[in-house]
Write a structure and sequence with these properties.
The structure is a single chain. This protein is an all-alpha fold. It is 72% helix and 0% strand. It is built from seven helices and no strands. The termini are far apart.
């Protein structure tokens, strides 16, 4: 992976700690709120939809997702701040280049991250949602590997996100399998509402 300026957030999103931390929180919260509003008049739509899906036994209640994602967005923002500032302050050209590559990967993963909810919940395309979250998880494992070479603390800050993405991949895949990869049938009052298997 190389640094691609057109696919990378401007430097201010990495250089300033408050901006670096608050930007992903604002994007995630704002996009989630917008999505809820766009698919229904109710902000509880995604939670209700989640309740209608057949789910594996190991699944958190819907209310957990918001607080968890807020913390994870903050941690990834902090990691981006650390990696960028540590890398750009380095005298090593290879470390500077790794920091720039990480900035591109970080920006790309933010975009991939925001695609999951519309695919999985708004469009109810389980296969596309799983492909998205698998890609997101892979990009973030690679990003963490890159950032570990720049600043190990940045990589450590990504570990909770990696754990959650791994779990979310399991959960999305399980929901897809248990619902025969057709989440639209729950719109018609599927008899298996909220059933755990």
């Amino acid at each position: 992976m190389v640094h691609i300026p057109l696919l990378t957030l401007p430097e201010i999103f990495f250089k300033n700690p408050a901006v670096a931390i608050l930007f992903p929180i604002a994007i995630g919260t704002g996009f989630g709120f917008y999505l809820n509003r766009s698919i229904s008049a109710s902000t509880q739509k995604v939670e209700r939809d989640y309740a209608t899906f057949k789910k594996p036994r190991l699944n958190p209640p819907a209310w957990v997702f918001g607080p968890v994602w807020t913390v994870l967005y903050g941690l990834m923002g902090y990691a981006s701040y650390r990696a960028w500032n540590t890398g750009m302050a380095s005298f090593s050209p290879s470390t500077i280049e790794l920091a720039k590559q990480g900035a591109t990967l970080y920006t790309v993963q933010l975009g991939i991250n925001q695609m999951f909810m519309p695919l999985f919940f708004a469009q109810r395309r389980a296969i596309a949602g799983v492909v998205d979250i698998v890609a997101l998880t892979a990009v973030n494992y690679y990003l963490t590997y890159i950032w570990n070479q720049v600043d190990p603390r940045a990589a450590y800050a990504m570990l909770p996100y990696l754990a959650w993405l791994t779990f979310a991949t399991y959960l999305a895949t399980s929901v897809g399998v248990l619902n025969d990869w057709d989440l639209r049938k729950t719109l018609d009052g599927d008899k298996g509402k909220g059933k755990q298997t």
